Structures are given as structure tokens and as C-alpha cells.
């Protein structure tokens, strides 16, 4: 690879990283705005979420095409190839986070336009705070090549799962106590489920960051083993 080609490749690689971070920032804002629309009834935020979704989809296509060209034209070294392959996988998870945020925004609009008087389950706010932090943390870990920080996102997904189950129990109890709340409670269950899925996608991305940094596939290895691998230690004899 000539010096000129090498510089061009490095610039394209950095553009790929920055574009993915930009996409992640948009998705993080979408989740926050969708939940704000749900809690406050400020439905202008729903339109903002949908506008951001179009930008997210555009970035996904642009980044994916750039990755394909970079691999085909440059035959990158192992560390650069891991970066490109990791971003390619994370693109799908990040785009799906955006899809879930748009679903939440649409349900928020439906609930408020139906003039449903309700107080959103407290757990929904807790879950949304957790998953927004997970997206932010995975982007930070990616930007800094920080596998240890990425491993905290994998662990935090366990907390989101607990919050999801608590919200489900709360809403089922709510429906049983007052059958008139069944319709809106079902919508809130779907919102909680969307938030839980965002947490799953953030965990997937965190696992990809660890692969990007160390070259180890930590999927299905358990949280404790993932944390040891992220620190550069052996995962032997560690259970989840």
C-alpha cells in the first residue's frame, strides 16, 4: 500500500468511526425524545423522532457501503479488519434501536391522542434511563477502544432485564385491578418490551467492541467471563 493510499485509507477509516458515532448520537436522542413524548404528551417530539430515523437509515446505508469498498480495495490488516467488521455488525443493532425508539414514539402519540389518562409505570422511566446510558456507554467504549467499559454494558443488560420483568408484573397487576386500563396497559407493555430490546442491542454492540479490541468473541460466554476477557485475562473456569 503506497503512502498516499495508506493516508486515504486511514482517513476513510476515521470517517467510518465518526459516522457511526454520529448515528449512535441520533439514536440516543431518539430514545430520549420518544420517552419524553410518552411522559409529557409533547407530540412534536414524535415528528422529531421520525425525522431522525430517516437520518439513521441514511447513515446505515452510507457506512455499510463504505465498509464494503474499504475491505474490497485495501485488504486491511487484522486490527483494521476487526474494526470494519465490528462496525458492520453494530450498524444493524444501532438501526434496530432506532426502530424501537420510533415504535415508542408512535405508541406515545396514540396514547395521548386517545386522551388516555394514566401515569406511566415508574419502571418505564427506570428502563429508559438504563438503556440510554447503555447506548452512551457503548459509544464511549467504541470511541476509546475501551473493552473494560464495554463489559460494563454487558453486565448492565442484566439490570434492564430485571426492570423489564418488574414493569411487566406492575402492568399486569394494574390491568387486573381495573379492566378499563387493559388497552393502554398493553401499549405500555409493548413500550417496555421495546426498551428491553434496545438494551439487548446495546449489549450486542458492547460485545462487538470487545471483539474489536481483543479479537475474542464473547457472545454466549457469560458476564464474568466477558469481564475477564475484556481485561485481557483468561476466561477459564469462570461461570456466568
Topology:
Blueprint lengths: L2 H38 L3 H31 L3 H36 L8 H23 L2 H31 L4 H33 L8 H8 L10
What does this structure look like?
- The structure is a single chain.
- The protein has 240 residues and is mostly helical.
- It has one domain (3-230): Up-down Bundle (Methane Monooxygenase Hydroxylase, Chain G, domain 1), CATH 1.20.58.220.
- It is built from seven helices and no strands.
- The protein has helices at residues 3-40, 44-74, 78-113, 122-144, 147-177, 182-214, 223-230.
- Helix 5 (147-177) runs antiparallel to helix 6.
- The longest helix has 38 residues, at 3-40.
- The N and C termini lie far apart (44 Å).
- The mean pLDDT is 91.
- Keywords: Cytoplasm, Phosphate transport, Transport.
- It holds the Pfam family PhoU.
Give the termini separation: 44 Å
Count of helix runs: 7
Classified by CATH, the class is Mainly Alpha
The domain count comes to: 1
CATH superfamily: Phosphate transport system protein phou homolog 2, domain 2
Low-confidence stretches: none
Based on CA atoms alone, the radius of gyration comes out at: 20 Å
CATH topology-level name: Methane Monooxygenase Hydroxylase, Chain G, domain 1
Query: Level of helix content?
Result: over 70%
CATH architecture: Up-down Bundle
Mean pLDDT: 91
Task: Please provide the count of β strands.
Answer: 0
InterPro entries: PhoU (IPR028366), PhoU-like_sf (IPR038078), PhoU_dom (IPR026022)
Domain PhoU: 21-107, 124-209
GO cellular component, one term: cytoplasm
Keywords: Cytoplasm, Phosphate transport, Transport
Amino acid at each position: 500500500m503506497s503512502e498516499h493510499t495508506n493516508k486515504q485509507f486511514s482517513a476513510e477509516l476515521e470517517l467510518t468511526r465518526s459516522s457511526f458515532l454520529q448515528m449512535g448520537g441520533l439514536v440516543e436522542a431518539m430514545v430520549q425524545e420518544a420517552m419524553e413524548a410518552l411522559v409529557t404528551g409533547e407530540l412534536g417530539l414524535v415528528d422529531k423522532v421520525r425525522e431522525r430515523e430517516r437520518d439513521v437509515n441514511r447513515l446505515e446505508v452510507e457506512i455499510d457501503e463504505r465498509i464494503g469498498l474499504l475491505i474490497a480495495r485495501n485488504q486491511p490488516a487484522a486490527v483494521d479488519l476487526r474494526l470494519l467488521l465490528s462496525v458492520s455488525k453494530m450498524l444493524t443493532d444501532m438501526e434496530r434501536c432506532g426502530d424501537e425508539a420510533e415504535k415508542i414514539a408512535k405508541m406515545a402519540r396514540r396514547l395521548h391522542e386517545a386522551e388516555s389518562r394514566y401515569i406511566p409505570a415508574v419502571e418505564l422511566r427506570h428502563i429508559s434511563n438504563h438503556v440510554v446510558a447503555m447506548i452512551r456507554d457503548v459509544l464511549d467504549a467504541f470511541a476509546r477502544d475501551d473493552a473494560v467499559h464495554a463489559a460494563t454494558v454487558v453486565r448492565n443488560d442484566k439490570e434492564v432485564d430485571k426492570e423489564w420483568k418488574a414493569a411487566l408484573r406492575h402492568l399486569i397487576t394494574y390491568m387486573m385491578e381495573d379492566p378499563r386500563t387493559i388497552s393502554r396497559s398493553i401499549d405500555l407493555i409493548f413500550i417496555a418490551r421495546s426498551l428491553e430490546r434496545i438494551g439487548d442491542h446495546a449489549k450486542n454492540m458492547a460485545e462487538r467492541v470487545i471483539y474489536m479490541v481483543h479479537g475474542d468473541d464473547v457472545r454466549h460466554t457469560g458476564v464474568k467471563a466477558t469481564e475477564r476477557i475484556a481485561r485481557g485475562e483468561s476466561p477459564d473456569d469462570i461461570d456466568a
